[in-house]
Structure to design on (127 residues):
């Protein structure tokens, strides 16, 4: 399965970052890209959420994960593209619109395409 081979490659990338940065390594099964952050959703609302997401059309795209970085505010190391493919931006825009129309609250921060690479550490003070 292509998804599992990609997940394994991302986990290997996380291992390399972990060796460099220390901290905790994310389990391979937990590696993902968050398209939209909802937080807690009541079980009674899951059917409505699934229906909203089912209405999204997905155009095929390639995602080149060529950049590694670490966010200071939450100490998360990640891999991501230098440029987000337009089809991925469109996917996220559609998902946001459908979920919003269905009455769900979600984090409206701008989308930043990234995959949690699995390494977290204490960072030295900026300066």
């Amino acid at each position: 399965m292509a998804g599992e081979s990609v997940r394994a490659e991302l986990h290997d990338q996380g291992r390399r970052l972990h060796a460099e940065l220390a901290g905790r390594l994310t389990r391979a099964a937990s590696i993902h890209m968050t398209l939209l952050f909802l937080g807690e959703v009541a079980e009674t609302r899951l059917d409505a959420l699934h229906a909203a997401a089912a209405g999204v059309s997905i155009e095929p795209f390639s995602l080149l994960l060529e950049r590694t970085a670490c966010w200071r505010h939450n100490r998360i190391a990640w891999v991501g593209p230098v440029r987000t493919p337009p089809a991925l931006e469109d996917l996220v825009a559609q998902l946001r619109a459908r979920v919003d129309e269905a009455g769900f609250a979600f984090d409206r921060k701008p989308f930043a395409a990234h995959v949690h690479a699995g390494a977290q550490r204490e960072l030295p003070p900026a300066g």
Summary: The mean pLDDT is 84. The beta strands are 67-71, 76-80, 115-120. The helical segments are 2-21, 46-54, 86-101.
